[in-house]
Request: fold
Amino acid sequence: MMQALLNGLVSGLLIALPAIALSLTYGILNFANFSIGAMITTGAYLAYIANTSFGAPIVLAAPIAAIVLALIAIAIQRGVYRQIRNADHVTLLVASMGVAFVLENVLRFFYGADVRTLDVPVARPLIWHGLRLNHEQLQIAVASLSAMAAIAFLLKRTRLGRAMRAISDDPDLAEVRGIERARTVDWTWAISGVLTALAGVMIALDGIVDPLIGMNYLVSVFAAAVIGGLGNPFGAVVGALIIGLVEETSALAVSTTYRQGISFVVLVLVLLMRPQGLFGAVRIRR
Amino acid sequence: MTVSAAALEVRDVYAGYGASDIIASVTLQAAQGRITTIAGPNGAGKSTLMKTLVGLLRPRLGQILIGGRDITPLSPPQRALAGLGYVPQERNVFKNLTIGENLRIGFEFIRRKSPEKEFNAARDRVLDLFPDLTARLGELAGTLSGGQRQMLAMGCALIPGPTTLLLDEPSAGLSPRYVTTMLDAVAAVNRAGVTVIMIEQNLIEAMRVSHDVVLLVAGGIRGKWGADVFLSDPEVRSLFLGGAKAKSENSGQERRSDDASAA
Amino acid sequence: MTGYLVAILTFVSLAVLIGFALNVQWGQAGMINFGLAGFYGVGAYTAAILSKQGVDGFTATVAAIALTAAISAVVSLATIRLREDYLAITTLAFSESVRLVLMNETWLTGGTNGIRDIPRPLVGLIGGQYYEAFFLALCLALVAIVYAVLDRIIRSPFGRAMRAVREDDVVAATLGKNVLALRVKAFAIGGAVIGLAGALHAYYFSYIDPGEFAGFITVYAFMTVIVGGKGSNRGLLVGACTVMVLLEGTRFLKDFVPFLSAQQAASLRLALIGAGLILILIYRPDGLAREYRLSVQNPSRPDANS
Reply:
């Protein structure tokens, strides 16, 4: 049981990164980005390319993947979402699904459906009072916590972070106060790209690289973001931890293949009982 | 065309939503260093005019100038950088950000290069004007009352030091005590050299601080008065007190050309 | 060649049926469904499993329709008061969960091996030789019937209420429309049509596996509806044909570009479909055929009040 809680915590930390990314883009662009799963996969493949094709060690491959995915995300924003910005948010949703489809199949085109693994040394797990924490989990925890600290600092203490929160709160007023929306949106996508790429790399570290790895986390990520109240990045972290814990502890009773099914059930329960998310009330609407 | 001394000038502007213009052929000048009030009945298009000035609404035709410079193609952030401050009537603060953060945001994107010291000085000046806010800098702006939000919004618009300030009904929804405080603040800001253009429904209070009045009816300018004589003008009286609305709207159409010269 | 044409037309009929469903849910009621593939799978597997148990084709199809409609209603209930994003998320999550069940509950669904030898309705009566043609005729007849039924619904007071809810559910609610019931019904009607399409899919291929009910079905359906013009059932025919031409046309890609493997050609096709979807959203958001509307350009003046 303790082991399940520990695994759940680590898994939650992993889900938290894309969940934060989803909340940031939702808050600023006002639509749920359905390509987030494909972005995770793309991040994993980018690290795989840097790692195996160019021989970069993982500490170098991960930031390379993050930067490249950030640039790809900005390019998609400029090439796709900005082009249809006058449409309603439902059109943007559909467009993001189209983006996911393109990303996934471009990866398939170049790398097929084969299962690949990163080239990293295998290390012995840490054992402490009978609790096992393997090396990958430790990396996930450290990387995720540092990324979260960086995001918190960014949002609370920097000009860009305040611009992002201001646009999320009231886009018209933000413009009147001198905030350049297009530039802030680009940065938001860049951050979203970095976070999802890191998640992709960590998923790949802990297991394999294949075209479906992002898709396998999509429901969990959405459930986490909804529990936290869509658009609230701090809530998304708590939502992710809840989802991680529920998924891992439920594995004691239900087959692990139903991980996403469990998230679906949690998602529906939250929507029925507290649709604004657990922290929805914190955000002031009028 | 003579060189204008106007802080803000609107030349033959048409604007609205979709296919229909809400304001048509609006021409007006707001003199440097004065308070100009835009008066008019409900539905006259006052807020539409204000949004067009700020840049949230693109005019279909016409030009807008600040200090003789054409700002029509500029986006709202660029207009803010050009010295235009704006206080919307509703949704005028970032509710999920603290009061301190609201003030900082008001400053930092317009005065990008200014050091922290200047921000602190500017913030202190605003807090001198609205001392109620001082103790609550760490609280979310959404927790403020309507009147306090109005003050914070005004502070946010003032903090970067605009040359021209646009106010959309600064006294709307305020208790009588706040109305006086607010309009006194407007007068104080103006004395410090800022040109003010405001929409105001509370005409009696507004006339106390205004210099000029422009009357907007049914999307067109009906004329310009000195604040001291505005309320005693028989036409104005009939419009606001007599309630002969239908008649006045018809005559508004005919008088439009005269208005341009009157403005 | 005739056989190929018959097959293509059958695919088009299925695509049109799915398009009809999405058109009711999204086009008419404004409810987004990213889990179409899952609902389609429910319909197909219900028909397949019942037919394997010896239930006759008609009853099994009715059961597939009823079950898919009922599940649609339940899923839509969960997000009924929320913005469309939540329904999109929930339906997608539902679809993923369906896929998991299809893959893992081997006792019921055959797992990844799928279900083979699904008995085709009336095959004894028609004979194998003409069955493909018969099935196409059946599909076309069903398309015509569903079109007629949906057309009636769209023109009925219920249809108008549905569009009113789509445009603004607050206004619709103040007019006394029961928004909740309306939306659940609209989603269930769409679900019923998807169930029918799923059943036909199972019978036509007489073999199904979980891989057939993945996200690309949903993308095709959206492509069909968007090309045809959201809300227009007549435009759908254009949409379905365009998508099919794109799909089939790009199938020959590997003949022209010999260095592509079959796998690469398939990926390239799907990527092109995704790119096509995006391009249409950017350049022709109203599709090639528009929904007929009495359009006063923008009757509301949101800001003329002060």
